[in-house]
């Protein structure tokens, strides 16, 4: 009789405390959960690769724009004081946008997973603004 009472007390304790019972169904759920966790780790490694590829492509685009801006700088220098004020303003705006794009690229490089999307949006906007500023400035010096 004492043993039955002790078993009942232990069962009540397990129910109250909520100790997990290792049934085959619970073990299967735990294994599925671990598999899902491992899968998410692989996707973060993939996103790191995507982040690196995006950064590399952006650097390539900015280098290309830098070359175009350097060619345009020769035209600007040749025009010198003959250039109209709108052209000068456009050139100064272009140089500012170029600095902004470079700083956004640095921010993108130092961004972690949490800040990646925000940094990427900033870098995309800076690149687009730089392209537009280049097109505007180049239109004055054709």
Question: How would you explain this protein's 3D organization?
Answer:
Helix 3 runs antiparallel to helix 4. The chain is rod-shaped and about 110 Å long. 87% of the residues lie in helices and 0% in strands. The chain has a domain at 51-142: Substrate Binding Domain Of Dnak, Chain:A, Domain 2. It is mainly alpha-helical and 142 residues long. The protein has four helices and no strands.
Keywords:
4 helices; mainly alpha; Substrate Binding Domain Of Dnak, Chain:A, Domain 2
List the helices and strands and how they pair.
Elements: H1 2-17, H2 24-79, H3 85-110, H4 116-140
Helix pairs in contact: 2-3, 2-4, 3-4
Q: How would you summarize what this structure contains?
A:
The chain is an all-alpha fold. The chain has helices at 2-17, 24-79, 85-110, 116-140.
The H/E string reads HHHH
Please identify the structural class as seen in this structure: mainly alpha
- Please state roughly what percent of the residues sit in beta strands, choosing from under 5%, 5-15%, 15-25%, 25-35%, 35-45% or over 45%: under 5%
The major sheet is characterized as: none
> Rg to the nearest angstrom?
31 Å
The termini sit apart by 103 Å
């Amino acid at each position: 009789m004492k043993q039955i009472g002790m078993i009942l007390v232990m069962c009540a304790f397990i129910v109250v405390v909520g100790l997990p019972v290792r049934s085959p169904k619970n073990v299967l759920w735990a294994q599925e959960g671990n598999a899902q966790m491992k899968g998410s780790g692989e996707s973060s490694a993939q996103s790191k690769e995507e982040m690196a590829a995006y950064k590399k492509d952006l650097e390539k685009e900015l280098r290309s724009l830098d070359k175009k801006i350097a060619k345009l700088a020769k035209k600007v220098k040749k025009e010198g004081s003959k250039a109209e004020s709108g052209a000068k303003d456009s050139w100064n705006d272009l140089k500012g946008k170029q600095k902004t794009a470079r700083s956004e690229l640095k921010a993108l490089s130092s961004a972690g997973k949490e800040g990646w999307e925000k940094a990427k949006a900033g870098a995309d906007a800076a690149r687009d603004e730089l392209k537009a500023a280049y097109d505007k400035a180049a239109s004055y010096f054709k």
